[in-house]
Amino acid sequence: QQITEEVVAFSVPSYACQRRTTLENHNMVLTDALSLLAENAELSEEDGRGVAFRRAAAVLKCLPEPVRSMAQLRGLPCLGDHSLRVIKEILETGASSEVESMRESERYKALKVLTGIFGVGAKTADRWIREGIQDLQQLRDSEQTLNRAQQAGLEHYHDLNQLVTKAEADAISEIMERTVISVLPGAQMTLIGGFRRGKQTGHDIDFLITHPEEGREEGLMSKVVSCLEAQGFLLYQKTTRNSYLESSSGPGRPSSNMDRFERCFSIFKLAKEDKRGETLMEDGAKTLNGDPGSHSPSSGQSQASGDRKRASEDGAKDKPSKHKRWRAVRVDLVVSPISQFAFALLGWTGSKLFERELRRWAGHERSMSLSSHALFDSKQGRYLRATSEEEIFAHLGLEFIPPSERNA
Ligand code: DCP
Ligand code: MG
């Protein structure tokens, strides 16, 4: 006799911003495979293909149970032929030959290692590979000229490729909070990015800073950075100034998706805790109130002059040291005026795909233009104000999705 299993097809709305995607993923094997194809496409600067695989992975991430048969996927959005082929092979054999051979390919491995250096993107990595550079040692042995970010990236390679834990994020939050309030009482700081979505690890820590009185946030970034630097917390920093109002395309309609807030990309020097829970720093920067200036990190000297130097001059400093009592952590800071705070909060909480889908929804389904600064309604020809994320979802005609369910 035959046992016929009832097949209930899943049903999923097509935009990721219409769905609730928690961190509980019942289809990790499938989504890991599709994410790897997405990553490889992005590393090869085929962004269109990258997004297609990201969308396919996101659909599987929000399913309530593991996929058992192709029939269950009938009618699901965003699953193209290529993705379906990969899924089918994994369901039948447990793995995708395309994904496995990509994972093992020299080119993929080299792109991974080289773009794993802070400050190195797909273009640079591709150029180096064409010049015969496949790994860090070959880069150091080469005569390639590195900019300041890449120098710091190479120097702290090991640390920056270790995931940041929630405990480390909390420790840095505390330092940041104290620093921000000390330079501007009343200023407010919010943890954004993956940690706001409830992730337990991340590749960096992201903070959004504002002040409840419009305008008081002006000049805040440089004060925060100076204060962190004086305490010996920064191994590297690069601040980009706010250019929002200078934009030729006007507020709310940025020419690119890059945000124009005052922003600081930094590498933080985080003391490791000893057994008694006391923080340790090998050069004495014990607490926030410790004597400032006496242990200034390398960022000071590298800023002065000679922004570029040869890879070989960096030596093998990324090697983990037994005695090192601190570790390097990537920290991003964004300052927003309070009038744009809700948009900044929504725009910087992620995930990256969720953000992309929100903007696509706004444009295609509502004739609106959403950025991390504002929401412009083209039909009404005006900006729509909002003081909370809830209001922005309402303007967009979307059900509110809390941060913990934006893990698309
Ligand atoms: N973001 C953006 N535009 C940029 C950079 C980031 O809109 N140019 C948004 C989307 C991200 C969020 O900011 O979700 C934070 O960026 P991250 O790269 O730090 O991403 P996550 O924090 O989500 O991931 P991770 O946990 O790996 O840090
Ligand atoms: Mg992050």
From TrEMBL:
The yes or no answer to whether the keyword Nucleotidyltransferase is present is yes
Query: Could you name the Gene Ontology cellular component terms for this entry?
Result: nucleus
Assigned keywords, A-Z: Magnesium, Metal-binding, Nucleotidyltransferase, Nucleus, Terminal addition, Transferase
Q: Which residues bind Mg(2+)?
A: 204, 206, 332
What are the required cofactors?
Mg(2+)
What Gene Ontology biological process does one annotation of this record name? DNA modification
Mark out the compositionally biased spans (Basic and acidic residues): 306-319
Where does the signal peptide begin and end?
Answer: none
Q: Where is this protein found? A: Nucleus
Quick one: where is this thing mainly located?
nucleus
Q: What is this protein called?
A: DNA-directed DNA/RNA polymerase mu
Species name:
Xyrichtys novacula (Pearly razorfish)
Q: Shown portion of the whole protein? A: 119 to 526 of 526
